[in-house]
Amino acid sequence: MNDYEFRCIDPRFDLNEREQIRALLSGYELGFDEGIQTFVIAAEQGQVKACAGLDGNVVKCVALAPEFRGESVSLKLMTEVVNVAYERGHTHLFLYTHPKNKLFFQGCGFYPLVEVPDYVTLLESTPFGIRRYCEELQQLRQPGSKIGCIVMNANPFTLGHQYLVRTAAAQCDWLHVFLVREDASQFPFRERFALVEAGIAGIPKVTLHKGSKYMISRATFPDYFFKEKGKVGACFTGIDLLLFREYIAPALGVTHRFVGSEPFCETTCQYNLDMRHWLQDAPSRSPALEVVELPRTEAGGRAISASEVRRALQAGDVARLRQLVPEATLALLCKNYGLN
């Protein structure tokens, strides 16, 4: 059992190993995550006996054949996948697993962050990551008894976003605005940040923050170990909001989380509903936060939304865009898309 070798495979091209990995995962009732670009495998006489996948900075689909459990293979496997990630520029890794496997991964050098009981635990590869991030945030704390926060994607920034920030700031001693960093949007982060910065420049008592790795990505959130696929969205929300409640909010002294009402997107509407549970009602080591839902502002009798901006942009409807976005956003759209 010592004649195994570790190597990397690309599941798009190494089809024999891909099918062996799929079979190994299936034995543990785990699915195959199509987002994985690289697998580290331990092979013995051509047979895959252990695997761990990398999807950017997220470790996924870890499994070992029964005869390899309890050996040093597990630690070597995790060491190999961490080394591969480092070679590719990912020095800070995250890992999602079922809570029953938490101790196993702690033994491999990962550290728990938050957990949705009975469903999923999020761990990271350093004991200092979240601590350092919170220390950075603490440098930006502001005095006051009512400290608000908004987390937005702003794809792109609209008059609705501007109204939300202005209204929330007026109700608080200070307001923190986080812009989600993930570049899975039509407008890249650099552009979105510049537009938000310009759009809120005249609003007092506001700090604009760049989102961090601790505002998690739907794109890399796994579903391969969920037997109940309907729970995936709820667990994503739980992990995301527990990170906010237990780390980000205490670091900044946040007491209130502001959101706009959601008449269009069912997913976002459900997220807003779940927010009250995870930030206000769920058991936590951190104080409850008050969730404040503000009605959306309207233009032409319809609630303003970024999705409508994108539709107007696709149609080249500059007149409608003028009703939906601030001047800085309109100027960027007209420049980038050749509108007059």
Automatic annotation (TrEMBL):
Going by the UniProt record, its keywords in alphabetical order are:
ATP-binding, Ligase, Lyase, Nucleotide-binding
Name the domain of life. Bacteria
Which GO terms fall under molecular function for this chain's record? [citrate (pro-3S)-lyase] ligase activity; acyltransferase activity, transferring groups other than amino-acyl groups; ATP binding; lyase activity
Q: Which InterPro entries match?
A: Acyl_CoA_acyltransferase, Citrate_lyase_ligase, Citrate_lyase_ligase_C, Cyt_trans-like, GNAT_dom, Rossmann-like_a/b/a_fold
Q: What is its EC number?
A: 6.2.1.22
Query: Which SMART domains does the record match to this protein?
Result: Citrate_ly_lig
Primary enzyme class: ligase
Please state every residue range assigned to the domain named N-acetyltransferase. 4-129
Its recorded reaction(s) are:
holo-[citrate lyase ACP] + acetate + ATP = acetyl-[citrate lyase ACP] + AMP + diphosphate
PROSITE patterns membership: GNAT (PS51186)
Q: Which NCBIfam families match?
A: cit_ly_ligase, cyt_tran_rel
Task performed by this protein: Acetylation of prosthetic group (2-(5''-phosphoribosyl)-3'-dephosphocoenzyme-A) of the gamma subunit of citrate lyase.
Q: What is this protein called?
A: [Citrate [pro-3S]-lyase] ligase
Organism, as annotated: Formivibrio citricus
